[in-house]
Structure formats: structure tokens, C-alpha cells
Design a protein that fits this description.
binds adenosine monophosphate, 6-stranded parallel beta sheet, Rossmann fold, elongated
Length: 395
């Protein structure tokens, strides 16, 4: 995305810089429980601080549906950011109007203020021109660094960008560089690993990936719909009955293109998802009776080692099983380990999507992966070839 101006090219000294960040982070009882997205914004913020900008941060958090709701306040994130930056971060209880304006007036060079949740105003998600104007009125320059939000045409992504001199932050540029490499220029062999719950969520990206990949691994509950389409028994596993034909068509298209598809050859099964003690391994592909597939089995894990280690580009989205339950996390963790090993040996490994990111992080191997995307939805839409309105607005 060379046509995007980098924040490095802006003269920010003494200027009020509105930065759209993605601080849509998980929180429990007012404490940030995963600060990956906050950490990922630090390179841009540090650059702006060191260059004497007055920094105004805006973000959304959760789905407050256009009304103030203390549950979705960004105030705890301001505190957390302050610890990470090792300097005070002011907080304003509104993102537009007098409270925001006063907070911005108080900024000196290098100061940072985080404004309250954009989605407390319904105008944000409607990309309302008046609301975009109010946001733009707070600043001299605009920097977009919220990769996780650029697939939405909202006031803080599309609207405001058109009203101010603008640039992309370092996180956005890094996301577009790595995902762009996967999309347009993957070094071969290119392996995609797609898992998670639903075929319907990922069908478009699967179709797009078929045109590029050499090998496609399908795991997670999604795999059962594919196995069903091949006539296998799937017991009581999660199957999308209305997607069985789609799965069959996809396998046919893959065969026609010479893409190797790897489906699980065995499974970890249980009699009830909340009863890990009932877990047992199948002897083959079929899942009989009332058994429910919750993870790929040992043979399937073994079958993935060589394809992962011989790939030069790997894109991974979606877990291999219900990895939130420790007993069912082995397949996902083993894939994470092998992907990290492949990256160490020089492959470009890009992980996208909240759950696979959490899985990689739980193995402690996140720093070995070439790039972990902060945007699940945005990374899939980008790979599907869809326009990202928040990026278009910067061009
Ligand atoms: P996604 O958001 O589509 O990537 O799906 C992630 C979710 O898929 C996680 O919450 C997993 O628990 C779930 N998942 C993965 N494998 C299975 C499975 N075999 N049965 C039910 N859910 C699964």
C-alpha cells in the first residue's frame, strides 16, 4: 500500500493529531485482560510523542448501541495506556462537544488524551457528516491506526479522514504489508489453515484462497460440514446442514485447481461438551452415534507437521477445536507450535482472527510469528478482496 502516506511523513510538531486507534479490548471488572491492541498502537504513539504532537486518541469499545453505558467506558484503557507509555494519559468523558474540546485545549506538546467511546453516539456508526465534522474540529491532522475497524465505513474511519490532512499509522501499514503479501504475492508453497465454528463465515475467504494456495487445511467444527459432504458420519458434531453442498462444491473446485485439501483423519470426541472427562479418540474419520467432535485427533495433528514445516507462506485463521477448554486445545496448540517453528525457519506466517490469536498467545510463541493481525473481520475482508473504507478514505 505504498500510496498511503505514513505518519512519519507528517509534520506533527505542535499540531493536534487525532489518532483513530482500536482499543476494543476484552475487559473484566474494569481491568484490561488482553492488551495486545493497546501495545500494538505504541509505535505510532511513541513517534508522535517524540515529535511533539498533541495526541487525541479515539476508539470504540464493544457495542453500546449509540448510548453512554459505563460498562463500555474507555476510562480503564486510559489508565492502562498510561502504564505502558510510562506517562500520564488524560481521559475525557465524551468524544465530541465541550468536554472533549476542553481536554484538547489543555494538551501540551507530547501530551496524550483518550476520548470516551465513539459508539456512545449513534452518529459514529452511521458515518454522520456532522459528527465527522465535530471530530475533525478537534484536530489539525488525522492518523488512522485502527486496522480492526477499517472495514467499517464509520465517522471515525471513513468520514473524518476526508476532512483533515491524513496518514496511516505504523500498525495499519504493517497489517497491510503482511496481509498484502499473503493476498497478492505469497512465496510458494502457500498453505492456508482455516478453522473455527462456521463454514458460512469463511466461505468467501476460502473461495479466494483457493485461487492462491497450494494446500488448504480445514479444521475446527467447519471440518465436519466438509467431511459430511464426503459421506462421513459426524455424530452430534456441529454441522451446518445448509452448507454441505457449498462444502462439496468447494472441494470440487479445489480438486480442479490442483489444490491439496487436508481434512482431519481422526478426532477427539466427547459425549457432552462440558464433560472433558468423557473425551476419547476416534480410530478414523467417522464419528459415530452421539459423540461430538471437539478437536482434531493425534493422526490429524501428525499429518499437518510436514505441510506446515515445508510451507513458505502460511495464513491461519480459526482454531482446530474448542480450544477454550484445555482438554480440547491440543490440535490448536500443536498447529501454533509448528507455525512458530516454520516462521523461525524463514516462512512468512500470518495469523488473523481473535481466536487463533488467543491460541497462539496461550502457547507463549506469539513473538515467533511473523505477523499477528489485530483485526479478524478486517483481515478476512481484505483477503476476500473487499474494499476497506477506512483505507480508501486515506488515499
Ligand atoms: P471462529 O470465530 O469462526 O474462528 O470460531 C471460533 C470458535 O470455534 C471458537 O470459539 C471455538 O470454540 C469454536 N470451535 C472450534 N472447533 C469447534 C468444534 N469442534 N465444535 C464446536 N465449536 C468449535
Amino acid at each position: 500500500m505504498s500510496q498511503l502516506k505514513s505518519v512519519k511523513e507528517l509534520d506533527v510538531k505542535g499540531k493536534r493529531v487525532l489518532v483513530r486507534v482500536d482499543y476494543n479490548v476484552p475487559m473484566e471488572k474494569g481491568v484490561v485482560t488482553d492488551d495486545t491492541r493497546v501495545r500494538c498502537s505504541l509505535p505510532t504513539l511513541t513517534h508522535l510523542i517524540q515529535n511533539g504532537a498533541k495526541i487525541i486518541l479515539v476508539s470504540h469499545l464493544g457495542r453500546p448501541k449509540g448510548a453512554p453505558n459505563p460498562k463500555y467506558s474507555l476510562a480503564p484503557v486510559a489508565q492502562h495506556l498510561s502504564q505502558l507509555l510510562k506517562k500520564p494519559v488524560a481521559f475525557a468523558p465524551d468524544c465530541v462537544g465541550a468536554l472533549a474540546e476542553t481536554a484538547v485545549k489543555n494538551l501540551r506538546e507530547g501530551d496524550v488524551v483518550l476520548l470516551e467511546n465513539l459508539r456512545f453516539h449513534p452518529e459514529e456508526e452511521k458515518n454522520d457528516p456532522g459528527f465527522s465534522k465535530s471530530l475533525a474540529g478537534l484536530a489539525d491532522l488525522f492518523v488512522q491506526d485502527a486496522f480492526g475497524a477499517v472495514h467499517r465505513a464509520h465517522a471515525s474511519t471513513a468520514g473524518v479522514a476526508k476532512l483533515l490532512p491524513r496518514a496511516a499509522g505504523f500498525l495499519l501499514l504493517k497489517e497491510l504489508e503482511f496481509l498484502g503479501r499473503v493476498k497478492d504475492n505469497p512465496t510458494k508453497p502457500f498453505l492456508a489453515i482455516v478453522g473455527g465454528a462456521k463454514v458460512s463465515d469463511k466461505i468467501e475467504v476460502l473461495e479466494k484462497l483457493l485461487a492462491k494456495v497450494d494446500t488448504l487445511v480445514i479444521g475446527g467444527a467447519m471440518a465436519y460440514t466438509f467431511l459430511k459432504s464426503q459421506g462421513a458420519s459426524t455424530g452430534k458434531s456441529l454441522v451446518e446442514a445448509d452448507k454441505v453442498d457449498t462444502a462439496a462444491a468447494l472441494l470440487k473446485a479445489a480438486a480442479a485447481k490442483g489444490v491439496k485439501v487436508i481434512l482431519p483423519k481422526d478426532h477427539l470426541v466427547v459425549t457432552a461438551i462440558d464433560d472433558p472427562a468423557s473425551a476419547s479418540e476416534t480410530k478414523g474419520t467417522d464419528i459415530s452415534g452421539d459423540w461430538i467432535g471437539v478437536d482434531i485427533g493425534p493422526q490429524s495433528i501428525e499429518n499437518l507437521v510436514q505441510p506446515i514445516l515445508s510451507a513458505k507462506t502460511i495464513f491461519w485463521n480459526g482454531p482446530m477445536g474448542i480450544f477454550e477448554v484445555d482438554r480440547y486445545a491440543r490440535g490448536t496448540r500443536e498447529v501454533a507450535k509448528r507455525a512458530a517453528e516454520a516462521a523461525t525457519k524463514g516462512a512468512t506466517v500470518v495469523v488473523g482472527g481473535g481466536d487463533s490469536v488467543a491460541a497462539v498467545q496461550s502457547t507463549g510463541l506469539a513473538d515467533k510469528i511473523s505477523h499477528i493481525s489485530t483485526g479478524g473481520g478486517a483481515s478476512l475482508e481484505f483477503l476476500e478482496g473487499k474494499e476497506l473504507p477506512g483505507v480508501t478514505a486515506l488515499q
